[in-house]
């Protein structure tokens, strides 16, 4: 299976830029996910790869074939790209059997009739539905219909598989089961896959790499572990998982450490930094609820930890853990713990490796702004 190379892809609608010079490379056989809130440009990017629309500028290459190039004024139509695509709605013909639905894709490509039955059976067998080959879509469950749509995309052995939120119409339990099955199938087939979703848990569980998008920009491209543990921006930290945010100003900085005065109470804290921090710079300190510790005395603090005085204003039992709502000045901080015994005035301990420092974002997407506002 080939690499997919997208270079400086830009898309405008009526003078409004919805995609800003996006570039990335998807490796051979990789499960690559475009992740972000509604309107971030992920489905637009997928549609441009599929050939459903033309970019304003930029290029797309799959293997050694150029699909789009504004420099050479080249545009390969979708039917000549040999890409498989599964839509959110599945788009199955209701009056056709499963066999007939899959045959449509083969007829378009003028595959001989003698070959079609074998290809159709093999494709349905890959998704575990060969025994239902004569059924109609309305006779199947939602999960089975989703598998038929996938089989139709695979039946002609495409170079790349494009999936546009294919699990979004399933209920929560079936969706969880389907993502495990889909990832296993993709790994078994070794097919290069581009997956679009707004579900962060889905992206983390299924992807080899994730591209986080916002407002037509690509904020970070990395492995699920790196995206979660080392988000490149405060907006990525807000969108992937949950994070607490405290605003402050850099008082001084030295190699690997920034001294920050928090705005809420004027407390001075030291935060480890991997890059540069300038004195006087407005910054945001971010930390995840499950990385911090809460106690009455702060006895769990290790050297380099940040310790804040907080008040417990609420505790919720959510099965595998307790969630605390903590008041710090006018802010609400969320903490997670395996015990629910802390009450009243308490000490919040943020380990040195749990806090990350970001330049304060003046503009973030509406979705991320709402997420960040929870703790601001």
How does the SSE layout of this entry go?
Elements: E1 4-13, E2 16-26, E3 31-35, H1 42-50, E4 57-62, E5 65-69, E6 74-75, E7 83-86, H2 98-108, H3 113-126, H4 142-154, E8 160-164, H5 172-189, E9 192-197, H6 200-206, E10 209-214, E11 217-222, H7 224-229, H8 234-239, E12 244-254, E13 257-262, E14 268-272, E15 282-287, E16 293-295, E17 306-317, E18 322-328, E19 331-337, E20 345-350, E21 356-359, H9 366-373
Helix pairs in contact: 2-3, 2-4, 3-4
Describe this structure in words.
This protein has helices at 42-50, 98-108, 113-126, 142-154, 172-189, 200-206, 224-229, 234-239, 366-373, and strands at residues 4-13, 16-26, 31-35, 57-62, 65-69, 74-75, 83-86, 160-164, 192-197, 209-214, 217-222, 244-254, 257-262, 268-272, 282-287, 293-295, 306-317, 322-328, 331-337, 345-350, 356-359. The protein has 376 residues and is an alpha+beta fold. The strands form four sheets. A six-stranded mixed β-sheet has the order 7-8-9-3-10-11, sandwiched between helices. Strand 4 and strand 5 form a beta hairpin. Helix 2 (98-108) packs across helix 3, helix 2 (98-108) runs parallel beside helix 4 and helix 3 (113-126) crosses helix 4. The chain is elongated. The mean pLDDT is 91.
């Amino acid at each position: 299976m080939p690499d997919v190379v997208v270079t400086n892809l830009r898309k405008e609608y009526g003078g409004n830029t919805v995609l800003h010079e996006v570039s990335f490379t998807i490796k051979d056989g990789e499960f690559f996910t475009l992740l972000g809130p509604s309107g971030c440009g992920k489905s637009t990017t997928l549609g441009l790869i599929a050939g459903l629309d033309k970019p304003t500028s930029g290029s797309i290459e799959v293997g050694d074939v150029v699909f789009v190039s504004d420099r050479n004024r080249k545009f390969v139509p979708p039917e000549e790209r040999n890409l498989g695509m599964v839509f959110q709605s599945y788009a199955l013909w209701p009056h056709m059997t499963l066999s007939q639905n899959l045959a449509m894709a083969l007829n378009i490509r003028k595959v001989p009739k003698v070959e079609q039955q074998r290809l159709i059976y093999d494709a349905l067998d890959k998704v575990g539905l060969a025994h239902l080959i004569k059924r109609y879509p309305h006779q199947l469950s939602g999960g089975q219909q989703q598998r038929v749509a996938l089989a139709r995309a695979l039946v002609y052995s495409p170079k790349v598989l494009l999936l546009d939120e294919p699990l979004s119409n399933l209920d929560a339990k079936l969706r969880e089961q389907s993502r495990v099955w889909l990832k296993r199938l993709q790994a078994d087939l070794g097919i290069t896959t581009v997956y679009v979703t707004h579900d962060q848990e889905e992206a983390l569980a299924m992807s080899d790499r994730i591209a986080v998008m916002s407002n037509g920009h690509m904020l970070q491209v990395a492995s699920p572990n790196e995206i979660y543990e080392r988000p490149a921006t405060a907006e990525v930290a807000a969108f992937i998982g949950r994070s607490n945010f405290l605003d402050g100003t850099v008082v001084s900085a030295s190699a690997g450490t920034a001294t920050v005065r928090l705005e809420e109470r004027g407390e001075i804290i030291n935060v480890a930094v991997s890059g540069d921090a300038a004195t006087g710079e407005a910054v945001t300190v971010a930390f995840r609820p499950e990385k911090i510790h809460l106690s009455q005395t702060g006895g769990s603090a290790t050297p380099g930890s940040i310790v804040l005085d907080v008040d417990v204003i609420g505790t919720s039992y959510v099965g595998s853990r307790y969630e605390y709502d903590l008041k710090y000045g006018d802010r609400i901080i969320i903490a997670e713990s395996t015990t629910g015994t802390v009450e009243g005035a308490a000490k919040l301990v943020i380990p040195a490796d749990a806090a990350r420092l970001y330049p304060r974002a003046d503009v973030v997407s509406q979705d991320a702004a709402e997420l960040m506002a929870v703790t601001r």
